[in-house]
Amino acid sequence: MRQYELTVLIHPDLEMNLQPALDKIGKIVETAGGKITKEVNEGKKRLASKVKKQEFAVYYYFELDLPKGKGVAKKVTDALDIQDEYLRHLLVTVDENRLKMEAKRKERKSEDDSEAEEETEAEA
């Protein structure tokens, strides 16, 4: 599996009932053989310029796992292109080197936290 990040700008009129639009994204990803690992609603924001005559959009961020292979990411983007609910979308691969660096950073932080706890206990 390869990791991807997907950002979708959802039509502002759907702000009160986002679930059907989000369910469609879930179905598109599942049809491509992938799964959504993280989902973040970043809220309604003003766009820098109008997109499809809209000044605002609801930003949604996803982290996906999609199978490796030709055309899998293209299938997802093509399916998103034909939906009216989404003003824009961007699907990018996650850099594996960045993931390794973040994992090392978390590991070091947890080691530092445990050392700090040991020092605090020793002082008490």
- The number of domains is 2
Q: Going across the biggest sheet, name each strand in turn.
A: 2-3-1-4
Structural classification? alpha+beta
CATH architecture annotation name of the largest domain: 2-Layer Sandwich
- Computed over alpha carbons, the radius of gyration is 19 Å
Helix content: 40-55%
Total of helices: 3
CATH-level-4 superfamily name of the largest domain:
Ribosomal protein S6/Translation elongation factor EF1B
**DSSP strand tally:** 4
**CATH topology description of the largest domain:** Alpha-Beta Plaits
- N- to C-terminal separation? 48 Å
Overall shape: it is: extended
Rounded mean pLDDT is 89
CATH class of the largest domain: Alpha Beta
DSSP strand (E) fraction? 35-45%
Largest sheet: 4 strands, antiparallel
User: What is the chain-wise order of helices and strands?
Assistant: EHEEHEH
Low-confidence stretches: none
